[in-house]
User: What shape does this take?
Amino acid sequence: MDSAAALSEVEERIARVCKIAKRDADDVNLIAVSKTHPAEAIEPVLEAGQRLFGENRVQEAQEKWPDLRARYPDVELHLIGQLQSNKAEDAAALFDVIHSLDRPSLLKALAKAYDKLGKRVPCFIQVDVGEEDRRAAARFPTCPRWSNRRARRRSPCAA
Assistant: This one.
């Protein structure tokens, strides 16, 4: 199955499920996870119309997305993997959305990087609602005390 057909099939499945759930399919965002895939494998999906992509490694994304973005400037790139504070500046420069904000020190590093760049992007706080030590996520009771920054959404994390 080619990329266009595969993308169309996934979009049809989303539409069917949304209809059952009485939700508007336009309110659902499909993020194509492109981690570990080379630019050559991503380009046909871009040609098929997909514009939201997820990566889990800053360095890997830095290698392939600048050239792809030059050709597809309307792409929205999401960081879906754990982020180390020392890579916050690189992530802030490259990604349009951060899904894995899991500790106050990372929040501070990202805020500093965004201030330097003069921009803001949506960030999702990854919350461990299951109180699992093996998860990289904020403990639920501590989230409101993180900062006075406005939180719009949280990304639950439980097994």
The two ends are 32 Å apart (CA to CA). Residues 146-159 have pLDDT under 50 and may be disordered. The chain is about 40% helix and 15% strand. Strands lie at 32-33, 52-55, 76-79, 97-101, 123-128, 138-139, 154-157.
